[in-house]
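Propose amino acids for all 212 sites.
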C-alpha cells in the first residue's frame, strides 16, 4: 500500500472506482522509451477536465489512413441538450474544419502542395474557404497563433476550436478539438481558447514533449 501511495503521488498510477490504473507519468515514460501504451487512455483525464471546464464536446482527431481527410478518434460529448458532437470515426475535409486545418498547418513540407493539387475546395457553407491563397494564409496564421477557430465552415451553426498536440520530436500527430454550437462561441471564446491551449500543452507532455 505504501508503494501504491508513492506511485500515486508521483503520477505513475491513479485511483479509479475500480481500483488503480496507469497514470500520466507512466504513459510519458512509455512514450520516451518507445512503448505502445495507449495515448488516448492517458489523455482521457485531460479531456474530461476540459469537458467539465467548458461544458462542450471535446475530441481528438488525426489524419485518416489515406491522409486525404481528418477522422475523429476520441469523443467526450457535451451534456448540454443543444450540442455539437461529431461521432468517433467520422471523416472531415481537411480544408473546411478546425481539426483538418490544424493537421494541414503542421504537416511536413510539400504535403500541402500535393494535397491542394488533388483537392477541389468546394463550399459547404457561405463561410467555407474555397481559394488556395486564402487557405494558405489561414494555415500560416494557425502556425503563428498555435490554434484555429472555425465558425460555420463545415455546417451552419457548428463551430470548433482546435490546437496541435506535439510528440517528443515536435511533430503534430493529433489535433485537440472543442466543438460547440456557434451561438455559444462569442460569449465564451476566451475561456474556450485558454482551456484548449492548456489541454494541448498537457497532451503534448503526455506524448513526451519536454515542458518549457
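Proposal:
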Amino acid at each position: 500500500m505504501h508503494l501504491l501511495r508513492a506511485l500515486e503521488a508521483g503520477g505513475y498510477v491513479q485511483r479509479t472506482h475500480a481500483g488503480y490504473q496507469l497514470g500520466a507519468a507512466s504513459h510519458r515514460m512509455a512514450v520516451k522509451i518507445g512503448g505502445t501504451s495507449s495515448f488516448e487512455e492517458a489523455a482521457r483525464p485531460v479531456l474530461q477536465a476540459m469537458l467539465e471546464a467548458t461544458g462542450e464536446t471535446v475530441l481528438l482527431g488525426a489524419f485518416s489512413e489515406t491522409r486525404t481527410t481528418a477522422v475523429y478518434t476520441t469523443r467526450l460529448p457535451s451534456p448540454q441538450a443543444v450540442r455539437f458532437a461529431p461521432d468517433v470515426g467520422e471523416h472531415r475535409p481537411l480544408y473546411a474544419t478546425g481539426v483538418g486545418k490544424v493537421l494541414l498547418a503542421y504537416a511536413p513540407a510539400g504535403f500541402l502542395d500535393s494535397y491542394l493539387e488533388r483537392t477541389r475546395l468546394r463550399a459547404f457553407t457561405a463561410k467555407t474557404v474555397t481559394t488556395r491563397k486564402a487557405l494558405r494564409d489561414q494555415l500560416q496564421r494557425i502556425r503563428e497563433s498555435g490554434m484555429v477557430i472555425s465558425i460555420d465552415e463545415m455546417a451552419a451553426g457548428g463551430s470548433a476550436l482546435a490546437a496541435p498536440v506535439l510528440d517528443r520530436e515536435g511533430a503534430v500527430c493529433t489535433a485537440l478539438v472543442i466543438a460547440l454550437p456557434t451561438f455559444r462561441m462569442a460569449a465564451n471564446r476566451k475561456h474556450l481558447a485558454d482551456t484548449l491551449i492548456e489541454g494541448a500543452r498537457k497532451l503534448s507532455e503526455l506524448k513526451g514533449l519536454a515542458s518549457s
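Helices lie at 2-9, 24-32, 39-54, 98-105, 111-118, 132-145, 185-206. The longest helix spans residues 185-206.
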